[in-house]
């Protein structure tokens, strides 16, 4: 990731770097794109998106520290299992299926739980970015975060996580400051908006895969402990 930090210094925003790394090869027909997508490692893609999300949160500061720490722990758990056998655990489906068969998928330290919460964190971020891009919405960032949190993370949080969120909410920066942090030094707001739209399109199939396997095994409603 050090090379990516150098690219940030050259003017690329974190979102632009993530978009370039996750973009599919040159456009083709739907069958071609589907084949290309199947060759990708969804586990690696989830890790890449999550790591970029951590760097975005770093730029914001201590505001969402609890969320950042949670993402980092789950990233480490998936990295460890992937390091054991990169081929075997290349897909999220393979990881969840194995843990379901072993009867370990609901354990606190399972990779399945890591996938659940990483997917939820990415979904939270996706809805937050969509809220920021809604030019008709003049809400403050605090209001956008509150609305996004209520619909994506709150239903699955226990009282400890909810309390930590309430503390973090008091440190949320102004909307314009947050957007400026995401944009970096070289973008116009129109370019930033286009990058966000492209990135969200790329990320959606990843969320779809994670959600499909979790729903299949009734694991999509796991709550924090």
UniProtKB/TrEMBL annotation:
Tell me a GO cellular component: membrane
Sample GO molecular function, one term: ceramide 1-phosphate transfer activity
Q: Which domain of life is it from?
A: Eukaryota
Q: Where is the Glycolipid transfer protein domain?
A: 43-183
SUPFAM superfamilies attached to this UniProt entry: Glycolipid transfer protein, GLTP
Residue ranges of coiled coil: none
**What's the name of the protein?**
Glycolipid transfer protein domain-containing protein
- UniProt organism field: Oryza brachyantha
User: Taxonomic lineage per UniProt?
Assistant: Eukaryota, Viridiplantae, Streptophyta, Embryophyta, Tracheophyta
